[in-house]
Design goal:
two-stranded antiparallel ribbon, alpha/beta, about 450 residues, 7-stranded mixed beta sheet, globular, single chain
């Protein structure tokens, strides 16, 4: 009997006409145990046995430096991590914390500190002249170059359904502080705040909707119902390992869909139970913890299904005034003004550390999620790099010694489990160039060449 093989077309299109794509399965030739078949089938079909992936997490308003930097240059058991990075203890051997790397390109050109900081995070170039109002009467236009994620996507994302995926949490307005990704000079890509819209874009085929008036909740259920029988037929033709992977994949998609449908619940027994609706309110700060997890789950699933290989998640605007009160009743002020108050006052320091720690928890969640997704003899995380970036070092607009963290070794390219401090201050353009190289992109420079002297020392 001719052995069963599943083509890349089936992966990209999904089953039953619905774009509920599949993870990499051994039956596709994606297994080291099946070599040389994997060399012939997997590499011919996918370009690599398992592709590299790149994710950006952006958080605003700097950090609390004394509570951020590790206590040792090597991570043995995670005890070396700081109070802010402590949630990453279980993944300490997968981290590179990078010291003495500064956003030097954000010290020049038009715009205020937050505008410069956000616009150059991934571009490494000064802002254009423009009319976006900033502090102290300053103004600027959009960033003046392609962003790192899009440069990488142009090289590794051309075989997937989506070149890249841009998601957000509580990002508002069409301003410089609300944009991270750029297709080119003055070509910003808006992040999608709604996990509902992201789910429908990633996993729904609009042609399955029986009526124009069908609610999105019903549409999601219709998609899952439509592919259930197709999945069952495919499952019968798979080996034991692929069956487990397929079962886990469908369960994960159904979990995301059910959480989208569940709506919100009161956060305290003293609260009056709200009238539940199918949708979580994507504009409420109280929804932020669940919104973060949903968006991260969608990113993880889109990578596992090879719908895209490049994604970013923008956590609130630069200089956001959102009050993150879900982290405690003592947080009654917006993140931006709190950050400006600094960390000399212990009470304010504790609050700011809690906020930064919350963002570290999101990174830890994403790493764990990717590690839970089997792929060949390893997991999806094994060939993924996550770049956690910020527009400032602290709340008073310091752009030197930015708290940059890289998670994942890019298939063995980076030597992780370390805190690497540059001997002298270098521009973050060098870090961006190193990330390009890790993704297999050959380049001599990135961003403004005046600030790029070569790849960052000590990462590989």
């Amino acid at each position: 009997m001719k052995p069963f093989r599943l083509s890349r077309r089936a992966v990209l299109k999904g089953l039953g006409g619905a774009a509920l794509a599949l993870p990499f399965l051994e039956v596709m030739g994606c297994s080291k145990r099946l070599a040389p078949a994997s060399e012939q089938t997997g590499r011919a079909g996918f370009g690599l046995e398992f592709p590299k992936r790149f994710i950006v997490l952006y958080t605003p308003n700097g950090t609390v430096p004394p509570d951020f930097w590790p206590s040792s240059s090597t991570f043995q058991n995670g005890e070396e991590l700081s109070p802010i990075l402590a949630p990453l203890k279980d993944h300490n051997r997968d981290l590179l914390v990078l010291g003495n790397v500064s956003a030097l390109s954000a010290l020049t050109g038009p715009g205020d500190a937050h505008q410069k900081g956000t616009g150059q995070c991934l571009t490494g170039r000064a802002m254009q002249e423009g009319d976006f109002p900033g502090d102290a009467g300053l103004s600027c236009g959009w960033a003046d170059g392609i962003s790192l994620d899009q440069e990488i996507a142009n090289h590794i994302g051309t075989k997937t359904k989506f070149l890249s995926l841009e998601l957000g949490v509580l990002v508002y307005g069409a301003t410089v502080g609300a944009r991270l990704a750029y297709r080119g000079p003055a070509q910003p890509l808006p992040p999608e705040n709604s996990p509902y819209a992201a789910f429908d874009r990633l996993f729904s085929d609009l042609s399955v909707a029986p009526a124009d008036a069908m609610r999105k909740t019903e549409q999601r259920r219709a998609v899952l119902g439509k592919v259930a029988s197709d999945y069952d037929r495919l499952r019968k033709r798979l080996g034991a390992a692929d069956r487990l992977k397929l079962d886990g994949h469908l369960a994960s998609v159904e979990d995301i869909a059910s959480r989208l449908d569940r709506g919100s619940a009161p956060t305290s027994p003293a609260c009056a139970a709200p009238a539940l609706t199918p949708d979580l309110d994507i504009d409420k700060v109280a929804s932020m913890p669940e919104l973060c997890r949903l968006q991260l789950d969608l990113i993880a699933m889109s990578l596992a299904c090879d719908l895209t290989r490049v994604a970013s998640l923008h956590f609130t605007n630069s200089a956001t005034t959102k009050v993150l009160s879900f982290l405690g009743p003592d947080i009654t002020e917006g993140h931006h003004p709190m950050a400006h108050n600094g960390y000399a006052d212990q009470v304010n320091r504790d609050r700011l550390t809690r906020i930064s720690r919350f963002y570290a928890e999101q990174l830890a969640y994403l790493i764990a999620k990717l590690k839970s997704m089997p792929e060949g003899d390893g997991t999806v995380f094994d060939n993924t790099v996550i770049f956690w970036t910020n527009e400032h070092a602290d709340g008073n607009h310091l752009r030197k010694n930015i708290p940059y963290v890289v998670a994942g070794n890019a298939g063995g390219y980076f030597k992780t489990g370390r805190y690497v401090v540059q001997q002298k201050e270098v521009a973050h353009n060098n870090l961006l160039l190193s990330l390009l190289h890790a993704m297999g992109v050959e380049a001599d420079t990135f961003g403004d060449p005046d600030f790029c002297t070569g790849p960052l020392v000590g990462m590989i």
